[in-house]
Amino acid sequence: MSTIQKEYEGKTEKEAIDAAIKDLQLDRDAFDVEILESQQGGFLNRTRKVRILVHVHGDNGGQSTVSKNHNDEPEYDPGDPSDDFEYAILDFLRNLTAKMGCPMEPVMNYRDKHKIGVRLDGEYAGIIIGRKGKNLDALQVLVNVVAGRLAGNEYKVVLDTEGYRARREEQLVLLAERTADQVMKSRTSRLLEPMNPFERRIIHTALNNI
Q1: pLDDT tens, residue by residue, 19-53
Q2: Do 89 and 42 have their domain in common?
Q3: Can you state the angle between helices 84-99 and 134-151, rounded to 10 degrees?
């Protein structure tokens, strides 16, 4: 049985493995990974790159099977964190919420090309969300600062708890439809509440679909 070996590197183990998946056009379970050089430094100061050696066995080296993690659909219910980057993100959120006096357990929610979703589970979901999601948005800003330092802005982290993001999107779509109906009937403009870029994008998309 023939074996193909090839080296890859990245700022994190995840980035190096992603480079191998993209180059080889294989699913992650189609090859083995040997860590040649791991990350060094403190939690927020990882300066050395990760080097891995990929072992492709059998006929997998000639296949062109695109990994499910690299198509246009996010991978839901991914289970445990898969690399140092994800472990670091979950540890940061776990420690941060504990210091806030609202301990929550972060779990991986989904993975996309350049985005990971993290769900915060616990009894303090209402406090974590805050008024109109402002606390949740603030936590998301903080965790993305950490993600940028760990992976060079390669990945965005999306936080959620108790399905708040989906509920908020439904509320905004209804708001857009109701406001559009009022404007058409009254022939006068309507001023909406201040929103973050994500919420404004939902409003614009909903209005375009009317």
Answers
A1: 888 888 887 777 777 777 765 444 444 445 777 78
A2: no
A3: 140
